[in-house]
Amino acid sequence: MISLPVVSVDVAAGLDDRRRMRRHDPILAKLRARIPLADLVGETVDLRPAGTKLRGRCTAHRDEGGGLYVDEAEGYYLCYSCGRSGDVVRWTRETYLCSEQAAIELLCRRVGWTPPAA
Ligand SMILES: [Zn+2]
Question: Are 82 and 61 in contact (CB under 8 A)?
Fold first, then answer.
């Protein structure tokens, strides 16, 4: 059993995320509630149960140890090796190397919603 340091979502999310969360708050909250983060991450990462979280190999670097943890209850991922972290929108941005607006559009289409105007 691996014991993980306690990282608050606020601290890990950083200022950039907090600004973003304010700007798109309603749609972001809806997307987070609608799209299970583990499903999204699980499309590109083999996730295995690890305590109350899921664990896999981070896609941002060579990760033999499996430092990427997905907290489905919080809708939040964090890599303990490189520090990358975020929610469904951040994961989409990092995976598809796209803008925040493009990520929101992609995720809205995924669940059959009309994306908000830019
Ligand atoms: Zn990483």
Answer: yes
Q: How far is the CA of 47 from the centre of ligand 1 (A)?
A: 14
- pTM comes to 0.77
| pLDDT tens digits along 60-115 | 999 999 999 999 999 999 999 999 999 999 999 999 999 999 999 999 999 999 99
Q: Which protein residues have a CB closer than 5 Å to ligand 1 (ion)?
A: 58, 60, 79, 81-82
Pick the CATH number of 9-110 from 3.40.50.1000, 3.30.470.20, 3.90.580.10, 3.40.50.920: 3.90.580.10
Give the Å distance between the CA of 101 and the centre of ligand 1.
24
